[in-house]
Amino acid sequence: LFLNQLQKDLEEVKELLTKATRKRLHDVLTTEKHKLELEIKNQPPTKLKADAGEEEKSSLGGYTVKINNYGWDQSDKFIKIYISLNGVQKLPAENVQVNFTERSFDLLVKNLNGKNYTMTFNNLLKPISIEGSSRKIKTDTVLVMCKKKREEKWDCLTQVEKESKEKEKAAYDTSDPSEGLMSLLKKMYAEGDDEMKRTINKAWVESREKQSKGDLPMDL
Predict the structure, then answer these.
(1) Strands (DSSP E) found in 54-154
(2) DSSP string of 9-20, one letter each residue
(3) Which residues, 6 or more positions from 174, have their beta carbon under 8 angstroms from its beta carbon?
(4) Interval 143-151 mean pLDDT
(5) For the purposes of burial, counting CB atoms within 10 Å of the CB of 39, is it exposed (0-12), middle (13-18) or buried (19 or more)?
(6) Domains assigned to the chain
(7) CA–CA gap between residue 77 and residue 145 (Å, rounded)
(8) How many whole angstroms separate alpha carbon 28 and alpha carbon 30?
């Protein structure tokens, strides 16, 4: 739009130049003509591509979407990450790129239905082989194959997930199972609404009554 305005201004200046009879006016218009020509010349190339649709499509322009949903599986040798992307099999192979490091990978899918898609996995749980890892394009799915350096089972995908699970386990995993249950009940009670609190109180009273009745014969 801005480029069209500049071109119209230039055409008008040229027209005025043909009609100008005073030297001073002619000089001013000539200077303005040079300024406009220079400004048009310095416009970014993309602004000049009014109808170059195909060229625009092949660039990394447009929206970039971060992929958060995926599924994963493993064999003795590979970690397999499945990413669902409708129509991905119709793209040229070079539009689906994966870069691997020993503990991470980046996926970039270019120009799928007018958008670019990215996914990054950092701090993988264990090292992978860069040379042995690859990606496969299937119907509506990209499969990222991470080759394990050692043939062993992974409990999760990343170090962060492992730490999160360990913290969660530590919160409830005590030597006394009843203490773990108490911690859980206290947490539910603190975060629950009135109905939840009434339910926990009732369950607690009933539980204590059953315990006292059950313990009595043993004490005798």
Answers:
(1) 63-66, 71-74, 78-84, 96-101, 104-112, 115-121, 128-138, 141-148
(2) HHHHHHHHHHH-
(3) 180, 183
(4) 95
(5) middle
(6) 1-42 (4.10.860.10), 64-148 (2.60.40.790)
(7) 10
(8) 5
Q: Rounded to 10 degrees, what is the CA torsion of 197, 203, 205, 210?
A: -170
Only one residue has tokens 């322009």, namely 61
The residues, ordered by sequence, that sit 6+ positions from 125 with a Cβ below 8 Å of its Cβ are 154, 155, 156, 157, 158, 159, 161, 162
Tokens of 88: 């991905």
Q: For residue 99, what are the β-bridge partners?
A: 106
pLDDT value, residue 128? 95
SS3 content of the chain, % helix, strand, coil (to 5): 50, 25, 25
Q: In this model, does residue 57 exceed pLDDT 80?
A: no
CA nearest 141: which of 115, 117, 124?
117
Percent share of the chain, pLDDT over 70: 77
Query: Which tokens is 75 given?
Result: 């064999």
Distance CA 79, CA 157 (A): 8
Closest CA to 133 of 195, 81, 183: 81
In the predicted model, what is the mean pLDDT of residues 164-184? 65
pTM of the model: 0.51
- State CA 51 to chain mean position distance: 31
